[in-house]
Design brief:
Elements (H helix, E strand, L loop, with lengths): L51 H5 L110 E7 H4 L10 E9 L15 E2 L5 E2 L9 H8 L5 E4 H8 L9 E7 L2 E5 L31 H18 L8 E4 L12 E2 L2 E9 L9 E8 L1 E3 L1 E13 L14 H4 L4 H11 L1 H14 L3 E11 L2 E13 L1 H7 L4 H16 L4 E7 L5 E7 L6 H11 L5
Helix pairs in contact: 4-8, 4-10, 8-9
GO molecular function: mRNA cap binding; translation initiation factor activity
Subunit structure: Component of the eukaryotic translation initiation factor 3 (eIF-3) complex.
Family: Belongs to the eIF-3 subunit D family.
Length: about 550
C-alpha cells in the first residue's frame, strides 16, 4: 500500500520581510510593530538569530547560570529594537518579585558593598570588598538576615533643595572616584591657634564594672566654615595656597565613596583660588549614627521619637562635645601658642573648650613644574604627657540594643564590651564605616599621635539625656585608617579631581551634592546669592500661598 505525501500549504510572504504580510494582517493590528513571543510561551522554537548575547555566550545559552537554569524573554537582548532600556531615573520604579529568588546580572559600580544600598568602597569590616558578595544586594544593602533581599528600597531626602536655576556641570559615579590616586608628602605646619590641656589618663581605666557618668560641661566649641576663618582669610590674601578647606570638609570629600546619606559642599572660586565651605546648620554640623548599617534607624514624623535618625544625630553630636571636654585633666598646664581666633571673652560667657587649630599646607601637585597647594585647618583636642604628643577625642554611642539595626542582634555594651570588644568594634566599623573613616582621616590630617575613642551608652535605653562612659580605647590614626581600609592616596586623588573641575570653570559659586539615593555626586553652578539668608527668605515668601 502506497501513501501519498501531500505538501501542506505554505503561507509565503511575498515582500520577503519577517512577520505577517500586510495583505493578511487584520485591521486592528495595523501599524503595530512586530515583536517576538516570550520563551516561556508554549510555542515551537526553531531558530533564534535575534539574540546576539546568546550567540556570543560561551559555555551555553544566555540566561543559564552555573547554579540554576533561568529563562529570559526572547528578544530581550541588545539587538532588539523594541527592548526597553532604562538609563536614568530609578526613583519611580520598584522590584516586583515573583516569589523565586533569582540571580541577575546587574551593572553595579565598582566597590558597591555593604552600605544601605550604596556600599562603602573598600571599607568597613571587610565591607563590600571591591563589589563582591555585598554588591549582589546593592539595592537592599549587602548581606543581611533572612529575606533581607526582599526589603523595599528606602528613599532618602537630599541635604539641599536643588533649585531649577542651578546648572548641572558634572555627574561623577563613586566607581570613578574609587579609582583615583594621588600620593602626597608630609605637610608644612604654618600656624597654630587656640589652647589644649592634658588628657586625663584615668579615663583609660574605665570599663563596664567601673563606668562613669557623662557630664554636661559648658564649654564653647566652634565649627566655623572655611570662608569664616580669619586666619585662612589672611593666608588667602597672601596667596599662600590655591585651595582652602577644613579637616571636617576635606574628610567628607576623601571618604565620599563610603557615604550613604546626602551631603553638600559649597565650592567658591575667587580668581585662581578655591574655597571649600559648608552650609550653616547642614549635615557637617552633626554626627551621623549607623549610616552604613544594613538596617539603619527608621525615619519618623514623631518629634518625640528619640531613635529617629535626626534625634540620634543630635544626641551623638551632644555626646561628642561633652565627652571631649570631660576627658581633660582638671587644672592641667595649658598649651596656647596663639589665642583662639574665634573666641571673644567680651561676647562669650562660658570658657572655650580645649582645642588647638593647626593650619597645615599640603602639596597636591602632580609633577615638579606644577604648583597646587591646599591649606587645611585641622583640630586636636588634647595632648598626652607633653605638648608635642597630640590627641583627638571621639565618641561612639549606643542607644537601644533592642532596636538597633545593621547587625542582627547587637551586643549590649554595658554587659559585653570588656569580654567581646572585638565583635563590638567590628560591628561599629560596619555600621558607621563613613563616620569612623572620617575620624581617622581628620586625625591623620591634624598630625595626631593618638585617637581616643570613647564608648558611651544610655543610662536607660528610653532616656536620651543621661549617658554613661563604659570604655575608652586608644588607636594610632594611621593604623586605624589601615584597619578600616581607608586609602589616603585615593582621598587626595578625589580632592585634586574636584579642585580641578571647579578651577577650570569661570569665577563663581558651585555646589557639590551627594545624591540621596544613588552612589553619585553632582556638581552644579549656582547663583551668587543661592545661600544668602535674604534670598532664601524671599523664596519662602514667594512659595507661600496667598490667603484672601
Amino acid at each position: 500500500m502506497t501513501l501519498d505525501f501531500t505538501l501542506p500549504p505554505i503561507h509565503d510572504n511575498e515582500d520577503g520581510s519577517w512577520g505577517p504580510s500586510s495583505s493578511t494582517l487584520p485591521a486592528q493590528f495595523k501599524d503595530i510593530p512586530y515583536a517576538p513571543y516570550s520563551k516561556a510561551d508554549k510555542i515551537t522554537r526553531i531558530a533564534d538569530w535575534h539574540d546576539a548575547a546568546e550567540a556570543n555566550t560561551r559555555g551555553g545559552r544566555a540566561g543559564y547560570t552555573s547554579q540554576r537554569r533561568t529563562r529570559e524573554a526572547y528578544g530581550a537582548s541588545e539587538s532588539n529594537a523594541f527592548g526597553y532600556v532604562h538609563e536614568e531615573d530609578e526613583k519611580s520604579f520598584s522590584l516586583v518579585d515573583s516569589g523565586q529568588r533569582r540571580q541577575t546580572k546587574a551593572r553595579l559600580p565598582f566597590g558597591a558593598g555593604r552600605g544601605r544600598g550604596f556600599g562603602q568602597n573598600r571599607g568597613g569590616a571587610r565591607g563590600g570588598a571591591r563589589g563582591g558578595a555585598g554588591a549582589r544586594n546593592y539595592r537592599t544593602g549587602g548581606r543581611g538576615g533572612y529575606n533581607d533581599w526582599n526589603k523595599p528600597q528606602r528613599n532618602r531626602d537630599s541635604s539641599v533643595t536643588i533649585s531649577p536655576d542651578w546648572a548641572l556641570l558634572e555627574e561623577i559615579e563613586f566607581s570613578r572616584l574609587s579609582k583615583l590616586n594621588l600620593g602626597v608628602d608630609q605637610p608644612e605646619d604654618l600656624e597654630s591657634h587656640g589652647m589644649i590641656q592634658n588628657f586625663d589618663k584615668n579615663f583609660d581605666r574605665i570599663n563596664t564594672r567601673n563606668e562613669k557618668p557623662l557630664e554636661i560641661l559648658d564649654r564653647v566649641r566652634y565649627n566655623a566654615s572655611t570662608s569664616d576663618d580669619p586666619i585662612i582669610s589672611q593666608l588667602a590674601s597672601k596667596k599662600a595656597a590655591h585651595v582652602f578647606a577644613t579637616d571636617s570638609i576635606l574628610s567628607v570629600l576623601m571618604c565620599a565613596p563610603r557615604s550613604v546619606n546626602s551631603w553638600d559642599l559649597i565650592l567658591e572660586r575667587r580668581g585662581d583660588q578655591l574655597f571649600m565651605d559648608k552650609r550653616e546648620g547642614g549635615p557637617f554640623d552633626f554626627v551621623s549614627v549607623n549610616e552604613n548599617a544594613a538596617d539603619p534607624p527608621v525615619d519618623s514624623d514623631d518629634p518625640n521619637n528619640i531613635n529617629s535618625p535626626a534625634s540620634l544625630s543630635l544626641e551623638a553630636t551632644y555626646i561628642n562635645h561633652n565627652f571631649a571636654s570631660q576627658v581633660i585633666l582638671p587644672k592641667s598646664k595649658t598649651y596656647e601658642p596663639s589665642p583662639n581666633p574665634f573666641y571673644s571673652a567680651e561676647q562669650e560667657q562660658d570658657e572655650p573648650a580645649s582645642c588647638l587649630y593647626r593650619y597645615r599646607k599640603y602639596d597636591l601637585s602632580v609633577n615638579e613644574d606644577e604648583v597646587m597647594d591646599i591649606i587645611v585647618r585641622t583640630e586636636v583636642d588634647a595632648y598626652l604627657g607633653k605638648k608635642d604628643s597630640l590627641v583627638t577625642v571621639k565618641a561612639l554611642n549606643e542607644y537601644d540594643p533592642r532596636v538597633q539595626g545593621g547587625s542582627g542582634k547587637p551586643l549590649d555594651w554595658r554587659k559585653n564590651l570588656d569580654t567581646q570588644k572585638g565583635a563590638i568594634v567590628a560591628g561599629e566599623m560596619k555600621n558607621n564605616s563613613v563616620k569612623l573613616a572620617r575620624w581617622a582621616v581628620q586625625s591623620v590630617l591634624a598630625g595626631a599621635e593618638l585617637m581616643k575613642m570613647g564608648y558611651i551608652s544610655r543610662a536607660n535605653p528610653r532616656d536620651a539625656a543621661r549617658h554613661v562612659i563604659v570604655g575608652v580605647q586608644s588607636y594610632k590614626p594611621i593604623d586605624f585608617a589601615r584597619q578600616m581600609n581607608v586609602s589616603l592616596n585615593n582621598g587626595w586623588g578625589i580632592v585634586r579631581t574636584i579642585a580641578d573641575l571647579v578651577l577650570k570653570q569661570p569665577e563663581g559659586k558651585y555646589v557639590l551634592v551627594k545624591d540621596p539615593n544613588n552612589p553619585i555626586v553632582r556638581l552644579y553652578r549656582v547663583p551668587e546669592d543661592a545661600f544668602d539668608v535674604g534670598a532664601i527668605e524671599e523664596e519662602q515668601i514667594e512659595e507661600e500661598p496667598e490667603h484672601e
